[in-house]
Amino acid sequence: MSTNFFEQQATAKKSTTWLLVMFCLATVAIVVTVTVVVAIAVSATPGDPNAPAAYGEAQSPWPLAILAGVGTLLLILGGSFFKILALRAGGGASVAESLGGVRLYPNTTDLSERRLLNVVEEMSIASGVPVPPVFLLKDEAGINAFAAGYSPSDAVLGITRGALEQLTRDELQGVLAHEFSHILNGDMRIGIRVMGVLYGILLMGFVGQLIFRTVAYGGRSRSNEKGGNNAVMVILLIGVALIVLGFVGTFLGNLIKAAISRQRERLADASGVQFTRNPAGLAGALKRIGAAQAGSQLQAPNAAQASHILFAEGVWKNMSGLWSSHPPLAERIRALDPSWDGVYPAAGSNARLIASELSAAGALPRSSHKTSRAFSHTSPLAAGFAEGSTSRSAANEVPLPVVDRAIEHVGKPTQAHVDYASGLWPLLPDSVISAVREPYAARAVVLALLLNRDATIRTQQFHALSGSIERDVVRLITQLAPHIDALDTRVRLPLVDLALPALTSLSPPQYRQFITAFRTLAAADGQLDLFEWVLSQIVIRHLQPHYDKAHPPSSGRLRLERLSEPCAVVLSAIAHAGNSDEKAQHAFAAAAAVLPHVSLTLLARPAAGLPQLRQALNAIAQATSHAQGRLVDACAASISADGHATIEEVELLRGISDLLGCPMPPLLVDQG
Amino acid sequence: MSWVIVLAVVVGVVLLIAMYAASIYNQLVSLKNRFANAFSQVEVQLKRRYDLIPNLVETAKGYMAHERDTFEAVVNARNAAMSGLQQASANPGDAAAMQALSGAEQGLSGALGRLFALAEAYPDLKANQNMMQLSEEITSTENKVSFARQAYNDAVTAYNTYRQSFPPVIFAGMFGHSTDAELLRFDSEAIAEAPKVSFN
Hints:
The structure holds 2 protein chains of 2 kinds.
Chain A: H1 5-44, H2 53-57, H3 62-98, E1 101-104, H4 111-127, E2 134-137, E3 145-148, E4 156-160, H5 161-166, H6 169-185, H7 187-221, H8 226-276, H9 279-291, H10 329-336, H11 351-363, H12 368-372, H13 380-390, H14 392-395, E5 397-398, H15 400-404, H16 415-424, H17 430-436, H18 439-449, H19 455-466, H20 471-485, H21 492-503, H22 508-525, H23 530-547, H24 564-576, H25 581-594, H26 610-620, H27 625-639, E6 645-646, H28 647-659
Parallel strand pairs in A: 2-4
Antiparallel strand pairs in A: 1-2, 3-4, 5-6
Helix pairs in contact in A: 1-3, 1-7, 1-8, 3-7, 4-6, 4-11, 4-16, 6-8, 6-9, 7-8, 9-10, 17-18, 18-20, 18-21, 19-22, 21-23, 22-23, 23-28, 24-25, 24-26, 24-27, 25-27, 27-28
Chain B: H1 2-61, H2 68-90, H3 95-119, H4 123-127, H5 129-164, H6 168-172, H7 187-193
Helix pairs in contact in B: 1-2, 1-5, 2-3
């Protein structure tokens, strides 16, 4: 198993490519078969006696056969593209809704929902992706979960009521780590393509039935026409051929789908355990599935279609393992817990633990889990927080080896990162936490992050703002501003991630009003610093897919060598940030050394301004994910060129990395 | 052979219509889910508001011992609104449930308004720290309620507009989306909508 995020992305891409090749081969085979069948059928039937002689004997079977072939081709491709587009446009939310999911809001007062959302928030911050919207399948008693969407920005998590009620916090964490791995490994994109491809073949079979029925029914009324009879036979044959091929195609397609799905599930189990370093949690959840009466089954009628995105087998199957979308339960448990004796725990045997976790969550909403964890890590970073308040200069430094190896952790969060994430809570005042979970007030939090420290500019900003958003929100920003100003740099990026679930529950008109206010505020600043700008871009990047049907570009195929100009802009902007011109030269040179094959020259400060940077980042979206990773690596080299890296610089690195689609976990002091 | 082409065209057209109808169906379902989900945010906020009221009554009771009727009216109105909310959350968008909820909410606002008006006469109560905090919280919750309600109404409007537009209107009835969802209006808009002016 590979441990590198970029390799993982590449593998995911390869298996999609493989899938598409298989699909193309299947389509070609089907089209050729249809053409040949039609050609044989036409030449086997005697010519039309009523037709003019010249037309009768010499009639070639090929025009009709080719027509049928082209029709089939259009049908399959059209159906697939239609389905893929529909799935992409709807995003993860529409998949969750089609399974009967109800959106859970971050301001919920229900304790078990709160516990779940706490786990989700921590894992998001730990992996550096936006906190996804969570959907609860209220009517499902089985234990199951899923991740859906096209990219981390529009990903959603779904979980059944059974899982919410019957799993302990560690087990929930195991399940969610598995789902986060799907998000980070790029499995959701594969899922959407698989669904689309199968739909095309399915549609062909459906059309075959349609033709067969229409002709078999309509043909009877036509049977008095002698010539028509032959044609009817031909059409019937085409119909039957389409039905048979559709059946065989779906059959084989499901085999391929199941094989890919099983492989991705094994991988998600493995990377989920890497994430939590707690195989017992995931294994425990799988054992609960084995123990529970309802197992992992879903009642929703659409469950079969979504079977490959679920945590565990969602539809009951009385078939051999070849068709299972998941490896057998016992095999998955044994992989995590080799000493397992094959006996499932009694259902409900963890009820007391869950109850105590929930009551603890009620008493101590934020750090409750610390007491309930089966094992606890004393993270060196937690000590770092304490130090930070006393000796700031020491805590403000991040050791260079950590920065140099930052890239290795992209998409590969660990338990230490989760501990870090839960360690961030005490740095956030209660008023900010409750505000950021409230759709109404989350706007104020995000806007307050964009306020300039300079009092005059800030007054201008408030002035500009008063026209574009409700007065009460402006008042709320004024109240929150002192708290936000005092925030540690390390929590600014996580705060943006935390605000996203609340912000994505705005209605489209509310969203547009918010974005207008957001842009107004940024414009009134006149000179956003690079980190504030990056934060604002992150907000837009992750919000847009929910409203504008714009997709954050998935990585493309270009190599960095062909993107030397945009790379130079990004690296120059970073080199200039907080550096004198002389030092910038040095920082840029260090970055250029990481990319020896790209011709890079340091641009002057104005040529690497924010508008240029935006264009550059858009251009780099066309690069392969591996290339983007190398660029992030070069950025890291740039910030550590002067012999030290501050937390501000490191958070900037994480922000840029996010904008390049490489979710970078927080950099931990002890990880070098 | 010519009618083979006719048949192919017919099949193609039927197929296109079927796919189009399927996409309309999906869109209707997803718009409906969206406003139902938006309603659950209204529910969160209203519940919070209802949870604050007993505290408010408890605090005020100590100062306004003689206003028992007002307290009773507030508590009753709150309970009525609670049950209205329960029914509304069971089927959001249902006209009767939405109107019942908005009626109950107006009753509650009226009762609360009377309580606050009476409280004006009790300077000690007004100066009470707890009371000030509670009334501040109630006000800010009201802002959140109206924000969530706006989101719900936007979602309902999107659903209704789509449902009534052509061509979805042809299929909407067939797919079980034959009635408009009901907007949620509270007092202020009700007044703005039907001003009762008399010139006698």
